[in-house]
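pasting for ref
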Amino acid sequence: MQFSEKFLYHIWDAQHLIKELKTISGKPVKIMFPGRWNTDAGPDFKDAIIEIDGKVLRGDVEIDLQTYNWNSHNHNENPNFNSVILEVVYQHNGKYPYIINENGDQIEILELCNVLDKDIAKLLKKYSEKEFKASRQKCKFFLQKNENELSVKLEEMGHERLEKKIKRFSAEHYFAGFDQLLLQGLFEALGYSKNKYQMLQLALKFRYDKLKKFYSAGMKKDELIALLLCSSDLINHLPSTFPAEFKSKWQELYSKQEFSRNKIDINWQLFRIRPVNHPAIRLLQISDFLYNSLETSLFRQALKIFSFKSETFNLKEFKRNLYKMLQTRSEFLPERYKLGKTRIDTILVNIILPLVIVYAREKKYEKLEQAALKVYREFHGLPDNYITQYMHNLMKPEQKKITKKKAIFQQGILKLYYDNCQYHDCEACEKD
């Protein structure tokens, strides 16, 4: 059934559900009060009262078509959603039986696709076109600060955004080890916007501990590539310029190997995708790094580049080691298809740094944490995305130059946008 998210609002509001409900994790759920429909910023329903596993909770409810929307809509980074006590989705497609909020707390999920009552067709006809209005104000944060004040504030907010990522990875560490978390992060980042979730599915299917077992049983690098490409059906969707002999080679290797025969049904989004962004190309780009790590540890490979003293930190040397680690050459790809430095920079800031800090805090390695924070404070600016471009339109020219200098400033801008500007919450901005 095809419908918009707003249709789910009406289903939830009218409680067109069967009586016996359970969360994805298996806990019984009773909806004592579904909450008030919220037309402003924040969760979709406010002040709900819900009993989960015998415990009565009071708070907010967020409604999404799929669980993955919680992260893709950046609710996991938004403190306005820390009041959510239940995530309601039409279809569960997340990594875990919970979502994780900005505080790092685990929130239960209720899937609706199999618990709807018999009046869905009537509801769809009645409510599918009902409109929901949104605010159209603008944020005025930048008008109140000179360049020095802005730098200080953005660095502070950049650290706050890093802490959110640390909380998220720390919560996810409950479900997976550091090797697996790094694998998932790498695959998601290499999927870009079109195939982010699809690449994550592949990382969850071929978990790192499973790949290590295959390696111990004699799996070669070509067999690893064959497993990833053939199991996911990417082998049948290679770019037209890809040599046919490689495709035949991997298909033959896959047919002969005995590590795994399970196929994964992944809905790859390949229409008008640039060859360099093709998920198959991205997998080949990191195949050497991934395979070579199986003898020891994927995460420990990343830790090696932080083996410097904070007081003698040299950014150029650090970047050389970072690019050397991830820009391994592939015999299957021309030089122009190697993993770009800007993509590696993004992986460092969004995945490697917070993961390293989670590890350092868990092990109480203070010097390692200080080294990671030193990198974060001094790392150069990343390429603009649509959010930073939008925010630049609200700045003075001299402010725009400042924000492009360092990644930490850009992360501060992203925090400002996700916390306030996307909801046009100007009052909160003017208080800062």
